[in-house]
Amino acid sequence: KAGVTQTPRYLIKTRGQQVTLSCSPISGHRSVSWYQQTPGQGLQFLFEYFSETQRNKGNFPGRFSGRQFSNSRSEMNVSTLELGDSALYLCASSLAGREYQPQHFGDGTRLSIL
Amino acid sequence: DQQVKQNSPSLSVQEGRISILNCDYTNSMFDYFLWYKKYPAEGPTFLISISSIKDKNEDGRFTVFLNKSAKHLSLHIVPSQPGDSAVYFCAASDSRANAGKSTFGDGTTLTVKP
Questions:
Q1: Is any Cβ of chain B less than 8 angstroms from the Cβ of A41?
Q2: How many Cα neighbours within 13 Å face the side chain of A76?
Q3: Residue A98 — very low, low, confident or very high, per pLDDT cuts 50/70/90?
Q4: 3-state secondary structure B2-59
Q5: Which residues of A touch B51 (CB under 8 A)?
Q6: Chain B residues lying within 8 Å of A100, measured CB to CB
Q7: CA pair distance B101, A50, nearest whole angstrom
Q8: In Å, how far is A82's CA from the nearest CA of chain B?
Q9: Chain A to chain B, count of Cβ pairs less than 8 Å apart?
């Protein structure tokens, strides 16, 4: 069974640009969440999508946005990039059934802002 | 306000001995707790979880203990192996309100010496 796939793995951008990251969840998983990890920090929750709707949102500025498609694939967009946006962006998927299910993570997209 | 805290940034143990990783939380609404392991250049891998209705969950060499009154959980690894060397993240979730959102600690780097 294929895991969570994130593309691209590495990305270099300059300040002011925008970027789109992609995530393909495990087949059958309907919930997709995004997290940001900066050096020495834990994972900070960005948002979660379920059935193409944003169900939860973290404390990030509006420059961070996302969407989910009918096949559960998700994209995250960051506009007007700042140096502080340099981080590892992780996507996680889960079944989101009746019982709580743990999230399964992709290997992340390493975003560097110059 | 950091709701999940891992107060030890690092831990070093000898191969074959027990590793104990600790985690504290403040939010009483958390009802699921998880441990993830992360190797460099990879995403976090789910290790073990525990529901708030239990105080212990065991899976092979890994056991998680939950003390709800103290808002504390711990992960025991017995016996520790060099391949266990990784960053371990504690995470918590309020499955009723935010099933797709986990709140993470900053991680503990475990080094198991041969």
A1: yes
A2: 29
A3: low
A4: CCEECCCCEEEEECCCCEEEEEEECCCCCCEEEEEEECCCCCCEEEEEEECCCCEEEE
A5: 100
A6: 31-32, 51, 93, 95, 99
A7: 12
A8: 23
A9: 67
Q: Is A103 helix (H, G, I), strand (E, B) or coil?
A: coil
CB spacing of B99 vs A96 below 8 angstroms: yes
A contacts of B91 (beta carbons < 8 Å): 43
Nearest neighbour of B43 by CB, restricted to A49, A90, A96 = A90
How is residue A52 written in tokens? Answer: 């193409």
Residues in chain A: 114
Task: Please tell me the predicted confidence (pLDDT) of residue A3.
Answer: 92
Q: How far is A4 from chain B (nearest CA, A)?
A: 10
Cβ distance of A35 and B100 shorter than 8 Å: no
Reported as a single tens digit per residue, the pLDDT across B63-114 is: 999 999 999 999 999 999 999 999 999 999 988 877 788 999 999 999 999 9
What's the rounded Cα separation, in Å, for the pair B61 and B33? 18
> Quick one: tokens of B114?
């041969």
pLDDT, tens digit (0-9, with 9 covering 90-100), for A34-77: 999 998 778 999 999 999 999 989 999 999 999 999 999 999 99
What is the average pLDDT score of chain B? 94
Task: Confirm or reject contact between A95 and chain B (CB < 8 A).
Answer: no
